[in-house]
Write a structure and sequence with these properties.
With 368 residues, the chain is mostly helical. It is built from 23 helices and no strands. The protein starts with a helix and ends in a 9-residue tail after the last helix. The relative contact order is 0.08.
Length: 368
């Protein structure tokens, strides 16, 4: 097994060297033995694939146990944990653990750019410290223009201030630096969809064909946004055959059946939605309020959808917040009565009272 991962890393190193990518800042460092190196490679592989984050956490913790000074392992551990907290509301219980990781990084190197970028992302989400954090992230990206981690933090910052065009520009640069990463290109396509660039998002799917689960997720969202129900059904079938009864696929099939006029089948699928939760959702307590809002909307239960939307916004669920900023183009087309409902608008106003401050955030020139 060690030989397999050594060969994999030799290949990766050659490709990344040719592209001048710096995943780890500073000079190359020696690992504390083969086992530590193998654990780090496994953890990094799960991070780059964008799936099974819990396995990434296990392997990165093992890498750190064997090599406590491995700053890049700490950095990836912070990244995957923060992504869980940021995107999966049920994982908010990990916030104290994230702070421990940040403190350990600070003890090793308080000026490490990866640490400063992670702190800026947390400040945007938790303190709404928009201007200073964006300034910090742009400065770090300028100083480290090929650092994928910092660039991903910057893209998240742009999403937070609703600059989807800049998020897409940033992730396009990341995808060019890291063309073999499903996570990078999938995030680029998601940013394009949020920016309303549907044709460009569709054109970017071709490089994803051989990149696994995230390719199918991205393809489904593009198909749904462009009204391509044939491709949507094909992606659902291939995805479920590959990774099983994931809640995302169940919700997408339910919406597909609704669009095809088969409301009974849509209801049957959603009735068992909780049992089809993704591994992450199961680990952290079940479906999010955003998931339940979407299910209620598909079933035509607008009052329930509004109830769960209110709870999602109160909980700070990123899925709900991003959707209100224009990311869910297909849902807005399919359910216009919901998004124009005075009660929906009232909820928006309740939680977006300080939105005017976002328009005042100045963005320095980007280095790419």
């Amino acid at each position: 097994m060690s030989d397999i991962f050594a060969v994999q890393d030799d290949i990766s190193a050659a490709i990344l060297s040719a592209l001048n990518i710096r995943f780890a800042l500073g000079q190359p460092r020696a690992f504390a033995g083969v086992d530590a190196y193998e654990a780090f490679l496994k953890g990094r592989d799960y991070v780059n694939r964008g799936i099974q984050p819990n396995k990434a956490i296990v392997w990165l913790n093992e890498a750190i146990r064997l090599d406590p000074a491995n700053m890049e392992a700490w950095r990836l551990l912070v990244t995957v944990t923060w992504n869980l907290i940021y995107n999966t509301p049920q994982a908010k219980q990990l916030r104290p653990q994230l702070q421990i990781y940040l403190d350990e990084m600070e003890a090793l190197d308080p000026n490490h750019p990866g640490l400063l970028a992670a702190k800026a992302s947390v400040a945007i989400a938790e303190e709404r410290s928009y201007q200073s954090s964006i300034d910090t992230l742009v400065r770090l990206a300028t100083e480290n223009p090929n650092d994928v981690g910092i660039l991903q933090n910057l893209s998240e910052g742009f999403i937070a201030i609703r600059r989807f065009d800049l998020a897409a520009q940033t992730m396009r640069h990341v995808a060019s630096l890291d063309p073999l990463s499903p996570y990078s290109r999938g995030s680029y396509i998601a940013a394009l969809l949020a920016a309303g660039e549907l044709d460009l998002a569709k054109s970017e799917l071709e490089p994803l064909e051989q990149l696994g689960a995230i390719a199918r997720f991205s393809s489904m969202e593009v198909a749904l946004s462009t009204g391509d129900l044939v491709t949507l059904e094909t992606d659902i079938e291939s995805g479920r055959a590959a990774i099983g009864n994931n809640s995302f696929y169940v919700r997408r099939e339910a919406l597909l059946r609704r669009l095809q006029g088969d409301n009974r089948r849509a209801a049957e699928l959603l009735a068992d939605l909780r049992n089809a939760s993704s591994p992450v959702s199961k680990d952290y307590g079940g479906l999010s309020y955003s998931d339940q809002q979407e299910a209620a909307l598909i079933l035509g239960r607008l009052d329930d959808a509004l109830h769960f939307f209110d709870k999602a916004m109160a909980a700070g669920e990123q899925q709900a917040i991003s959707g209100t900023y224009g990311g869910y183009h297909a849902f807005r087309k399919i359910f216009p009565e919901y998004y124009s409902d005075p009660r929906y608008i009232e909820i928006l106003e309740k939680y977006h009272a300080d939105d005017a401050s976002l328009a005042e955030v100045a963005v320095p020139g980007l280095p790419f």
